[in-house]
Amino acid sequence: MKNKKNKQDDFKFFTWPLILFIVFIFIFPIIVKAVRYFVYYGATIPTESLKLALNVVVENFSFYSTALTISFTVFVFVSNERNRYRDDRKEREKDRKEREKEREKDRKEKEKELEQYKDHYRPSFVVDATKGIILIMREDTLYIENVKYYDSSDNTKNCISKVSLKSGDIVSKKIPRSFYITATTIIGEEILFGYLNGGIKIYKYLKSKGNALHPGIGNYSDKSSSKDWGDYNNISVPTDSTFSEIFFYNTYDIRENVFLNTNKVKDIVESRNFNKLLHSLFMFFSYEIEANTVELSSVYAVLQDVLDILKYNTDCFDEIKKFDFNIEYILNKESYIVYNLPRAIGYFDSLDDIDTFFMMDFIDCMRRNLSVLRDEKNIDDSTEKFVLRDIIAILLEVFDNTNIPSLGNILLINLKAEIFNNIHFKNY
Q: Which residue stretches of 141-207 are H helix?
């Protein structure tokens, strides 16, 4: 129907101009004769005008024949060219579609090959009533990393973590009616496994650029979940949609941990200037200290190095004014630190006097207090973490209101690398 319509449009496009041209050719000699008559005889209408017009037509019959022949020839030529162009266009469109089809076929073949490659490294889990939960890989030499076993979806903080497990290893001898396992394959793919209500197994993998937090609670659909998560080990028995919804609901807190694991230092690495880098670093440390996932020794080391670099490689501190900061917030943090750390050094001894605030002294003070906190033996781990997070909160407040366009000859990538290389996560 589409091609037929195009032909009709082409016909209309060429017919009407041709008709108008033929009419013009027909009346042209008559117009010339009329103009000639009016020039010779004035504005008078001749008698027997119709006969005169017919005589003009008869006298110029050869002219009309030639004009019509030429018009017809031009019409046929243009029509043929138009048809040839349309046929060429159709052929090109057909070739383009064929090429697209071939490319789509190649893409699907490559995706299939990649999927088969990834599937080779994905784990399976066997539930044995006597031995426990057993890891099975495609080859005995293969293993998974960053393994976390959750015996409940309600208590996600007390999971069993293992650096790595090889094929045949026992994940847990305890077999609850429902449990969940997350892991990273040796090619970097995130795996999420669920064992629901005594026998329903669900295997998921996080797709490339997928968001582990999707789908969220209350907005599940098969279509939305498939954008971020893929199924495996379910060719013979596809995962029921209802079970998938329950699975994603139960694993939301667990998927939060997967998200954090895949995005731990992302904001730090992606920082585009020194201010964003410091902000991302302080926020990262504050969260990871609370989550108990980072080695405190690396926190102290990184903060001390960063403060040293700030002190000796920037000249912008003269512009800083005390009223740019939330003084009440900082003083509250200081009071908490002093109260909980007997040997704490005062952060701002004369903070109420704006003239006494000097950035270099502030940095020195923070460095000393970090050293005191690190070496303090008379406080428990919980208090140490709270005080350390308060110190970081003060650093965040000050440097969020401090413009640092440069750090002397130190490149942004240099500081990123220094920070990244010295952050150490805990291995459970």
A: none
pLDDT over 60 at 132, yes or no = yes
Cα distance between residue 155 and residue 158, in whole Å: 6
> Which structure tokens are listed for 421?
């290389």
The whole-angstrom separation of Cα 301 and Cα 5 is 76
- Tally of CB atoms within 10 A around 99: 10
Q: 135: helix, coil or strand?
A: strand
Q: Is 58 helix (H, G, I), strand (E, B) or coil?
A: helix
Q: What is the rounded distance in angstroms from the CA atom of residue 220 to the CA atom of residue 250?
A: 12
For the CA atoms of 163, 169, 171, 173, the dihedral, rounded to the nearest 10 degrees, stands at -140
Minimal CA–CA distance to 255: which of 193, 178, 317?
Answer: 193
Return the axis-axis angle of helices 412-422 and 296-313, rounded to nearest 10°.
160
Q: Considering Cα of 101, then 105, then 110, then 114, what sign does the dihedral take? A: positive
Let me know: does 313 contact 408? Beta carbons within 8 Å: yes
Instruction: Name the burial class of residue 272, with classes exposed (0-12), middle (13-18) and buried (19+) by CB atoms within 10 angstroms of its CB.
Output: exposed
- The two structure tokens encoding residue 281: 């670093």
Q: Answer whether 204's CB lies under 8 Å from 192's CB.
A: yes
**CB-CB contact of 390 with 370 (8 Å):** no
Top-confidence range, 152-156, 192-196, 406-410: 192-196
* Chain centroid to CA 176: 37
Give per-residue pLDDT as tens, 340-351: 766 555 555 444
* Cα 187 from Cα 116, distance rounded (Å): 13
Classified as helix, coil or strand, 345 is: coil
Report the SS3 class of residue 178.
coil
Closest CA to 391 of 313, 336, 328: 336
What does the angle CA 387 – CA 390 – CA 391 come to, to the nearest 5 degrees? 90
